[in-house]
Write a structure and sequence with these properties.
The protein is an alpha+beta fold and 188 residues long. 36% of the residues lie in helices and 12% in strands. It contains seven helices and four strands; from the N terminus they run H-H-H-E-H-E-H-E-H-E-H. It has a two-stranded antiparallel sheet with strand order 1-2. The chain has a two-stranded parallel ribbon with strand order 3-4. The chain is globular, with a radius of gyration of 18 Å. The two termini are 36 Å apart.
């Protein structure tokens, strides 16, 4: 074993630090792993604590046994197409991707008005959203109706209706339709 083996084995903790080292970035460096919401939570933490930040998200599908387990649980789409918000939604599709955004407070080009994330607490299962918690989170997000919401977008018959119903309960009485989409749906 070498020093490279030791630092390479700490994959989650070392990723942010390797990037900071490679690009000679200074200041706090942290990795966040919350499953589906890791990038959103990292963005939320950055907007709360830093005047400038580089926030990124990466998903690499290793090992394959997780895909097999998700498929057996009925979470993955057997048609291999994620249909967020569609009546025919039959699951999501795992995808590999990396995305990064630079955040600067006071930047006039930023259209990000609110970033919120929460743990729903108890629901009908660990991977199922809690409708009341979803509504409470959206009410904390902002008082004005947004023009667009980047949704969790599970592409499932369980998750999407709960998310969309919460959005309708909070922002439903508006003159224009609320635009929603989910990057997860497109990347999968």
């Amino acid at each position: 074993a070498s020093a490279y083996d030791a630092t390479g084995a700490a994959t989650i903790a070392a990723i942010a630090n390797r990037l900071a080292y490679a690009f000679d970035l200074r200041g706090a460096s942290a990795a966040v792993d919350t499953a589906c919401s890791s990038t959103l939570v990292a963005l939320r933490l950055a907007t709360l604590s830093a005047p400038r930040a580089l926030v990124g998200g990466v998903n690499v599908i290793v090992p394959n046994r997780w895909s097999e387990a998700f498929a057996r649980a009925g979470m993955l789409s057997p048609t291999h197409r994620c249909a967020y918000g569609d009546d025919g939604a039959d699951g999501y599709v795992r995808g590999e991707a990396a995305s990064f955004v630079a955040v600067r407070s006071g930047d006039r080009n930023v259209v990000l008005e609110s970033v919120v994330a929460n743990q729903d607490g108890t629901s009908n299962g660990l991977t199922a959203p809690n409708p009341a918690s979803q509504v409470a989170m959206l009410r904390l997000a902002m008082t004005a109706t947004p023009g667009y919401v980047e949704a969790h977008g599970t592409g499932t018959r369980l998750g999407d209706p709960i998310e969309l119903e919460a959005l309708a309960r909070v922002y439903g009485d508006v003159s224009a339709p609320l635009q929603t989409a989910s990057g997860k749906s497109y990347l999968g």
